[in-house]
Amino acid sequence: CTGCHAALADAATARAHAGDGHAAVTCLDCHMAKVVMGIDRFVRTHRIASPSDPRLLGAAAPNACNLCHLDRTIDWTIDALAERWDVHLPASGDERGAGEAWLASREPGLRVLAAAAYARSPLGRAALPELVRGLDDPLAYVRAWTAFAVEDVLGRRLGLAEYDPRAPAALRARQLAALRARVIR
Hints:
- By secondary structure, the chain is mainly α.
- 49% of the residues lie in helices and 4% in strands.
- The protein has helices spanning 11-18, 27-31, 54-58, 64-68, 74-85, 98-103, 108-120, 128-134, 140-154, 169-183; strands spanning 34-37, 42-44.
- It has a two-stranded antiparallel sheet.
- Strand 1 and strand 2 form a beta hairpin.
- Helix 8 packs antiparallel against helix 9 (140-154).
């Protein structure tokens, strides 16, 4: 990054560029966000991008800001970009937090990405009821990836007797009822 952006090689300048409250954020967190599906985790994209790309924010697609600020709306992100970077984009009008909107998306990839983002987030425990709901997704791969996220939030693995994403719907329903009773308080 600093090969082209030499001014940001100074740690204080880089922190100021990132803005208040982002002392632990790196260039990669904003400009190469974790939006690429790996084998069992999301990994960084190899595309260097701007978090203010209107094509992403306009479609409420995954963006670097909301991957961390899951509880904030896309409009909050648009407002922050306008205030901090003088980037002006049209409002989305969606009043839900981005994480909530992504978990409820018709797009399976967004549901999976949101689950993975919650697994990395301090908000993961609070989102556990919604994540557990994702374990009943109609698509097996979404259920499997959501199970990874639930395991990360719980800090333990789910045995197949506890939850099997490939099990028939009736068995999964029983497993999920028992899992909800144990982990959601």
